[in-house]
Amino acid sequence: MLQNIRDNSQGWIAKTIIGVIIVLLALTGFDAIIQSTSNSRTAAEVNGEEITLDSLNAAVDMQRRQLIQQFGKDFDASLLDDKLLRQSALDGLVERTLLLQGAGDAGMVISDASLDQLILQMPVFQIEGKFDASRFDQVLQQQGFTRMQFRERLKQDVLVSQLQAALVGSSFVTDAEVDAFVSLDKQTRDFSSRTLKADVTTVEVKDDEVKAYYDEHPDQYMSAEQVVIDYLELKKESFFDQVEVSDDQLQELYNKEIANLAEQRNAAHILLEVNDKLTDEQAKAKLEEVKQRLDKGEEFAALAKEVSQDPGSASNGGDLGFAGPGVYDPAFEQSLYALKPGEVSEPVRSEFGWHLIKLLDVQAPEVPSFASLKDKLEHDLKAQQVEQRFVEAVKQLEEASFEASDLTQPAQELGLQVQTSAPFGREGGEGVTANRQVVQAAYAPEVLEDGGNSNAIELDPDTTLVLRVKEHKKPELLPFEQVAAGIRQTLAQKKSREAAKAEGEALLASLKQGESADGDWTKIEAANRSQEGVDPLVLQALFRMTKPAEGKPSYAGVSLNNGDFVVLRLEGVSQAKAELSAEEKVSYRRFLASRSGQQDFAAYREQLKEKADIERF
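The structure corresponding to this sequence follows.
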């Protein structure tokens, strides 16, 4: 075989091919080839910082899901233009990257501790007002985030918010600007309106028009793209039945558990801090005086309220509540555990200052029975072995799936069952297909187009999944009969809108030429910018109209969202000067400053884009 290759490489065909390659390399250079390869997983570069295709795909999926949630479960996701979604998502990622770079240049940071505290305080992760780790993982799974991905996303959100707040908060407005805005805001207008209805019953849509529209707009009537996947699900809980623990092991663990139980001691204290106003010696001396007062019969709780500088306990008579070993400062704890109930210590020095400590009560530990803890102890012991087995099984699943052409062999090796999903689109489905990582893996090119098995996907700390596409249902043109009724309705609405607008514009033209304004007009006097009972589009058009000349009204028209056309007749403008209270002035000033700040922030974003080196692939 090697000889054949050697002989063939000497032929004129081989030499010609090699010659062409050399010419191409000379013309394009190695850099172009390397760049083409390196950009295969990059969607864009922003000032040298990469935006990966994985990030873009995740952003597209999230945008699609948000749109579906916004419009409801009956919304046809196939109507979404994937190209436009990708463009919008990429624009968003580019802008986000620029803002993060801007925040970095401005020296804005958030510590890990602050980030942790923010997560703990988020209501969405709480149950009965307290952070719940299971709830945290559940919400993240629904959103398609791992813990690290969520932390990074939250960190970015905080930095962008800091940047925006800094720009918005620096804006201000003058008194003259406030007065001018208030004058316009308080303006009222007298007008009349006449509505020309868009009535679908008055128009005719012919069959050939329906068919022609269907033929001209096939992209609007495509079925949704869907996939069906086969998958293997590896669950940690399935390994618990495979491991055993002995009674001796359980008894040993039980003994350790109860050995760690300790009595709880209820302490009270009087604290004096050592600072610029009170030296170490002075603090100790003052507490010795307090101790003498106690020895003479004064109440500890009363003296704690009078003397103690601990804001958390002073008002409660110095009571610190029950606590076990390891909670307090070592010197404090040593003195506390040397006391008997009711006794007060001599002055004790800790890192917080000088204390007098009183032992109020001692609570003996409650020792649970072996029977009450047995199930928990058995689970804890098994969990150690299960964790190791689960890690090994995940690794085995990854290796077997990588090497196999389907999921049959990995399923046999690990004793798993190949499961099949219901069809789902890029917005996800139910069960495991509601997980964003699963959706992204199913629609990844190497799985969807190349037919490979996915990498191992961690759905949560206890569940790992591998999938492959069983069936790919590509978008297809829906039958004409299935969509004809909808097209007919669309065309009828369009024609009725056009008829109402044409009639309205003809009326406007005649009115502007001075012809009589007969018909059914509705008159409203002193309408403000938020007039109840008036369509917002009508109000917008009304307050854009020029002030009518003396004795002559001005006219305008506006199409409403329902297709109706409204003819407006502006008859008068009142520029009332209202006296504002101090509170109202503050409210207007804040509103205008915020609006100006938002405009500044928008201008800053545009400036970042203009100066940036952005390359899209």
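Residues 1-39 have pLDDT under 50 and may be disordered.
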